[in-house]
Structure formats: structure tokens, C-alpha cells
Amino acid sequence: MKKTLILVGLATIFVAIHACRKENPAPPPDPLVYDPTYISVEYPAYVKAYIGDMQHPSDNLLTEQGVALGRKLFYEKMLSNTQTISCASCHKQENAFDDPRPFSEGTNGTFGDRNAMAIVNLGFENRFFWDGRRNTLEGQAHDPVTNPIEMANTWPEVVSRLQNSPAYPDLFFLAFGTRTIDSNLVVKAIAQFERTLVSFNSKFDTYYHKGDTTVFTQQEKNGFEIFIGKGMCNNCHAMNSLLTDRDFRNNGLDVNPADDGLQKFTGNASDRGKFKVPTLRNIEASAPYMHDSRFATLEEVVNFYSSGVIQSSPNLDVHMPDFGSGLNLTNQEKADLIAFLKTLTDNEFLTNPKFSAPNN
Ligand code: HEC
Ligand code: HEC
Q1: Which of 78, 90, 151 to mutate to test the pocket of ligand 1 (most atoms within 8 A of CB)?
Q2: How far from the centroid of its chain's Cα atoms is residue 276's Cα?
């Protein structure tokens, strides 16, 4: 009898505990779900025909959430020590993500000795900086944050600011499935955003790649003939849809280059004075020109190629036309060449709201 009572008692307690559990349901599930939307970058078929598809690192495939986060980080001033500059302070959309100032000013009021570089179609490239010292966009994005003449910050400081901000942990969760932020995730997101910065919608594309010859004026046609003809500009600013052969070359700026260029990275004397061949897409918007901003205008650049190339420059590229005393373009030819260069402007790219500073 006693035993039965005890058993009934225990059973009652058990049922009671069980009921209790039911009345206190588990906390509501996380309202955010990690379910990334994989996307691809849109570009014309002729780009693929010339240079193949854009390559993405297998551990950093493009997602809608990753790109949105990268865009926010690209415009994020918390990345700099004084919280006053972002990547976009030196890479401005209206200037093809280049800096209109000859030398960019870092947070400490210091200036570098190189012109910032345009960020255009870099998803198709694999050597970055004027001297090629980085080979991924992810790797590249590590550098400005800690560079003393740029953002002059430390990664632990950046990570702690982002981690303690109201918005970022959730955004990292949506993009990468974790709220624990680290520098690798920051640069991954930024690189994803940069890969979306493609520009193939210029008048030149309509004329040359889409075959609508009515869009060029006679002057632009003449300029194009110089570009691929006597000027041999396409030897390096190649007709592969990128307007760069993605190589490093010396175009004859100096007898004695003050900046060693590619040699700084490789250590080889045969690389002295070689610099990355920049794309000419949106060149009208990305003045000043050359690694040290020595030319303020396209007129100055064209004058240089016409009569200023220094044949005794170390490692002068074999693809530089050797015309003895120079190309010696007439004023008309110079104007034509410049008119052609301006057909490489892609206004949709320079004003696309998807690439501008996000509202939140
Ligand atoms: C203070 C100005 C400044 C800031 C801020 C800055 N950059 Fe730059 N950026 C430069 C300069 C100058 C260069 C060229 C440096 C060199 O070649 O040594 C450059 C080069 C680059 C390149 C190489 C492009 C190519 O064609 O090889 C990329 C990509 C880039 N920056 C992205 C970024 C990102 C992403 C950020 C933010 C995390 C950033 N930059 C912040 C000035 C800046
Ligand atoms: C041998 C390869 C080569 C040839 C040929 C060549 N370039 Fe260049 N070009 C370069 C390199 C390399 C640079 C960057 C040099 C530097 O900054 O030190 C450059 C820079 C430029 C720039 C400035 C780009 C920027 O973002 O600052 C313009 C504009 C330009 N070239 C136009 C032309 C034109 C027009 C022609 C034909 C008349 C031409 N190039 C022929 C290799 C070449």
C-alpha cells in the first residue's frame, strides 16, 4: 500500500514537472536565418570570350548578403583609427573609385607617394597595387587598415568596434553564419563588393564589341585608329575588353625612376621602373595620371606618349613603340586620340546607386 502511494506520488511529480516544461516553451527561435543567396556578377559574353569567367575563391563565393556587408564596410569610417576616413575616401565612385587628389591623405595628415588606383573590373585580375605585391582582393584589403599613412588602425581595434556596434554582428551572421567578427571576414566581404564593380557599358563597347559603328563620331573613329595603329597603345592597354594586359611594364617615364615599382616587390633589377598597366576604362574620370600623378590631364599624357618617352629608361618595355624621336602626333591627332579615350567612360558605372554609400 505504502509502495503504491509512493509510486503514485512520484508519477504525479513527474507529470507535474513535464507539464511545467510544456508551460515554459523554449525561447523563440532566432528571427534571423543564415540562408545566403548565391549570386553572380553580370558581364557581357564578349568579356568571357576574351578573358574567361571571373574567378572567385572557393571559400568566398559571392552572396547578396556578403556584397551588401562589403559595401557597408567599404564606406565604413570605423575602419580608420580616427574614424574619419573609409576606403571610399580615397576610392570615389565618381572618379572610377580613384582619388582625384594626386596623393591621398591618411588619417594622420600624412601623404603617400603614389596615386590611389581605380577599382574597375578588378575581379578579373590577380596582381594588385602599382608594384603587384598582393595577389588577391582579400589580401589587398588587409593593408590599408593598418598602413600608417592610410587608416593607421589595428585589426583588433577594428574588430572590437564592429563587434560592439548594434548592426554589424547580425550582418556578419547573415553573410557568413557567425556573429563572431574577425579580420578575414571583413576583407572577404569587402572583396565580394569589389568584384561587383564591373564596367562594360561605354560608348566604346557599343562601337567595338556590339558592332554599332554609328555611335562614334569621325573624330572618335580617327582616335581609335591611332590607338590601335601608329600609337600602338593596345600593345599594353589591350583590346581584350579590359583595356589592360594585366602585366607590369615600363612605359619610359624616367631616366632614373624614383620609385622602383615592381622591383620593390620582386627584388629583381630587371623589374626596376615597371608598374602595373592600368585599365583605361573611365580614364576621363580618374585623373591625375601615372603612379606618381605627374600628369594632371589627358593632354599631358598624350604629349608624353607623343614626344616625351625616355628611350634610355631602365627596362623600357619592348612593346613601347620605338620611333626614335617619338610618335610626333599632330595637334589634330592628339585631339582625336583624347576623343577616343573619352569613349571609355561608363556613366552607368560612375553613378550606379548599387555602388554608392548605403543609407544605413
Ligand atoms: C588614404 C587613402 C587610401 C585608403 C583609405 C584606401 N586606399 Fe586603396 N589605394 C590607395 C593607394 C595610394 C593605392 C596604391 C598604393 C600602392 O600601389 O602602393 C591603393 C590601391 C588599392 C587597390 C589596388 C588596385 C589595383 O588595381 O591594383 C585596391 C583594390 C584598393 N586600394 C582597395 C582599398 C580598400 C578595399 C580600402 C579600404 C579597406 C582602401 N583601398 C583604402 C589609397 C587608399
Ligand atoms: C609598353 C606598354 C604601354 C604602351 C604601349 C602604352 N602604355 Fe599607357 N601605360 C602603361 C603603363 C605601365 C602605365 C602606368 C605607368 C606608371 O604609372 O608608372 C600607363 C599609364 C597610362 C595612362 C594613365 C593611367 C592611370 O590610371 O594613371 C594613360 C592615360 C595611358 N597610359 C594611355 C596610353 C596611350 C594613349 C597609349 C598609346 C599612345 C599608351 N598608353 C601606350 C603602359 C603602356
Answers
A1: 90
A2: 14
What contacts 159, CB < 8 A, 6 or more positions away?
181, 182, 183, 186
Q: What is the pLDDT of residue 321?
A: 78
Q: Set out the domains of the chain in order of their start, with CATH numbers.
A: 45-199 (1.10.760.10), 203-344 (1.10.760.10)
Predicted confidence (pLDDT) at residue 7 exceeds the cutoff of 90 = no
pTM over the 0.70 mark: yes
**The dihedral formed by the CA atoms of 245, 246, 252 and 255, expressed in degrees to the nearest 10:** -160
* CA 294 to the chain's CA centroid: 23
Ligand lying closest to the C-alpha of residue 99: 1
Gyration radius from the chain CA atoms: 27
Q: Give residue ranges with CB within 6 A of ligand 1.
A: 79, 85, 87, 89-91, 104, 106, 112, 114, 116-117, 119, 122, 128-131, 137, 140-141, 144-145, 150-151, 190, 276
* 268-289 pLDDT tens trace: 999 999 999 999 999 999 999 9
For every residue of 51-115, DSSP letters joined together read H-PPP--TTS--BHHHHHHHHHHHT-GGGSTTS---HHHHSBGGGTTB-SSSS-B-TTS-B-SS-
